Amino acid sequence: MGGETIHALRDISMEVQRGEYVAIMGPSGSGKSTLMNLLGCLDRPTSGRFFLSGEDVSQMDDDALSEVRGARLGFIFQSYNLIQQLTVLENIEVPLFYRGCSETSSRARAQELAVRVGLEHRLDHKPAELSGGQQQRVAIARALANDPLVVLADEPTGNLDSTSGADILQMFSELNRQGCTLIMVTHDTSVGSQAHRTIRLKDGRIESDLRNRRSTPEPQPPTDPRLKAS
Q1: In Å, how far are 19, 49, 218 from 168, measured between CA atoms?
Q2: Which candidate, 74, 58, 68, places its Cα nearest to that of 229?
Q3: Residue 214 — pLDDT band, cuts 50, 70, 90?
Q4: 3-state secondary structure of 148
Q5: C-alpha to C-alpha distance for 126 and 111, rounded to whole angstroms
Q6: pTM for the whole structure
Q7: Which domain holds residue 169?
Q8: Using only C-alpha atoms, what is the Rg of the chain?
Q9: What is the DSSP string of 93-143?
Q10: Number of domains observed in the structure of the chain
Q11: What tens digit of pLDDT does each residue of 44-63 get?
């Protein structure tokens, strides 16, 4: 407005290794959402570079970024973002449909993931017939459909009661133990403490980047970063 430039992020430099579980925290307006959009290839940085699995994606056009999102990233949202007209199984299949997978392979993969998140008894149910925690489980299964390099979760427990939220965080921990790389935006300290590493933003800058002493992931070779931004 009025020609004023707003710098949502300033001098951000960070690297996430394969298999890490990272929480991004900070007050409203600190730049969390902007950083998540950049890491999720939803936006491009106005300066600097962003490498995903060794490839510079910061200057890709919209079509190329769309391909990267579909092939390498999984997204989990606070509001679930499920398609209300589709069943549990069909919602999980959506990313596979856009990748051009066959109906047979898509159905098999969706069924496998439904079992993995504990919804094998709800395959034909639609979102309105599910609890909030069950809807988020569908969203997690959908995010895993393409076997992504990184799963990005934006306030994944924000709409859930404490019991359902704890269940989802337990599932995240289990996924991470299985090798899934997780980056989660949250304003909730108790949620962020479940991650191995917490990056705190303030006024668009990294205020701190600390390891959680309670648990740390297995060390990964520093020569094979999955995600690097600067």
Answers
A1: 18, 33, 22
A2: 58
A3: low
A4: coil
A5: 15
A6: 0.88
A7: 14-82+148-229
A8: 18
A9: HHHHHHTT--HHHHHHHHHHHHHHTT-TT-TT--GGGS-HHHHHHHHHHHH
A10: 1
A11: 888 899 999 999 999 899 99
